[in-house]
Every structure is written in structure tokens, then in C-alpha cells.
Amino acid sequence: MDWVKKFYSQTGKWWGPAESKITERDFERAKKIKRLAPDTKSILELGSGYGNTAAACARAGFDVTAVEISDRINFAKQFTDKKYSGSLKFIKADFYEVKFGNKFDVVTYWNGFGIGTDDDQKRLLTKIASEWLKPNGLILMDVQNPAKWCEWAKEPVVNKKANPAKGYNFNVSEKIEFDEAMQFMTDTWWETDNPTEKFTQKIRCYSPADFKKLLSGTGLKLDLIEPIGDELRKVNEYLVKLTK
Length: 244
Ligand SMILES: C[S@@+](CC[C@H](N)C(=O)[O-])C[C@H]1O[C@@H](n2cnc3c(N)ncnc32)[C@H](O)[C@@H]1O
What we know:
Strand content: 25-35%
Number of domains: 2
CATH architecture of the largest domain: 3-Layer(aba) Sandwich
Helix content: 25-40%
Organism: Candidatus Beckwithbacteria bacterium CG1_02_47_37
Protein name: Methyltransferase domain-containing protein
Bound molecules: S-adenosylmethionine
Order of helices and strands: HHEHEHEEHEHEEEEHEE
CATH topology of the largest domain: Rossmann fold
């Protein structure tokens, strides 16, 4: 998993100036927490990226602790000197290594689950259930849907032109591939005029049936699956609610 810090720091350098701001997606995530876990006060957010969703959740009244390993977290400074009805704390760390002094009502992991092997995912889920969640706590997280990634992998290289007015300062290119046997997507990016230096993220995608199997032995059960956007077969990720 050596690629994680490098990939998200580099792509954060390309996109952070444009994307490190609270948008409708972040407010929608805060609303999902209110809808699916109405008694929530404290949240642990894993892989918080630029910190946009963490800030929207603090604004919505939650006490948020957010953990992020890459330099994307440097963009979160803009959020920490503001006043919220909840509270907001960022920790730059690997969430497999960090220790907390308290437990949480809800653990969230937006658009990040699937890094590493099945054993790595099991290790993470077991850690959340046994160490980080309160007895009645729950997980809300996105899972990558193989059907859509398989479809995207058939597309040719996409070139995305810089748009400095919007904060996109680099011309970049992307190629998605999908390993059908192992159900991994690889998503490779490079600066268009420097194709020798490529950056790849590799994410395990789970059909709902595979995801249910993964939960075995973790101390968690699947309470709900909700496509993000359209119907399940048309979307690249779906939300799961997991309870103890
Ligand atoms: C695809 S990004 C999603 C960021 C954000 N949650 C969002 O929805 O915009 C996944 C994030 O998880 C972070 N991440 C992955 N593994 C991590 C780990 N072991 N510890 C902390 N952060 C991690 C990555 O650096 C990256 O910023």
C-alpha cells in the first residue's frame, strides 16, 4: 500500500486548489448521517482528503475527528480556524496506526474503502468494530461497484485540460483498467506532457454479494445498501450501513 500517500498527495497537488471546498456532496453526506444515524454526536472520519466533508459535518453540529495520511490534509487548514456548532479536529496519520482516547458513535469512510487485500479490509473493519465504535455505534461508508468500473475500463485515455480560472492548473490524462478475475480497478493518472511518470490507485471493488462475504468474522452486519445516485447497476459506488 506504498502508493497511497504518493498518489493522493500528487493528485491533491493537481486538484486541491479547485476541489478543497465544501460542496453539495459534503452537505448531502452530513444529511445521510442525520437520516441513517439520528442519535449521532461523535464521528470518526477515515481518509478525509481535503477535509470538506469533515467541515460540513462539524457545521451540521457533529463532533468530528478526521484522519488523513496524504498531503491533501494541508488544504484543511482553511477549515480549522472557523467556529462550528459541532467541533473539528484533523490528524495527519495512517489510520491503521493511530490511537484514539475515545470511542465514536459513527465511523465514516467516504469514497475510499477498498485499498489493499481482502485481509486488509477485514483488518480495518474488525479494528473499527472492536476499538473505535461505541457499543451501539455504526459505520457509514462507500463501496466501489465493479459493474461500473468494468464499463469505464473500456473507455480510451481521457485528456483533461487545465482550467486555471477554476483552480485546475495542470493538463492531466487518465486511463482506467479493471481486473475482472480479482475485481480490482486501477486508475492511472499522469501530467499529459510527462507520460513517463504515472500515478496509479488500485481499489478492490465488491459486488453486494462479495461485500456480505467480506463481513464474516469482522463483528459487523450489513444493515443497508443504498446506490449513490441512480440504480445500483449504473453507479460506481454504493453506501453501506454496518452495525455491530
Ligand atoms: C479517494 S480519496 C477520498 C477522500 C474524501 N473522503 C472524499 O470523499 O473526497 C481516499 C482518501 O483516503 C486516504 N487514505 C487512504 N488510506 C489511508 C490510511 N491508511 N490512513 C489515512 N488516510 C488514508 C487517502 O490519502 C485519500 O485522501
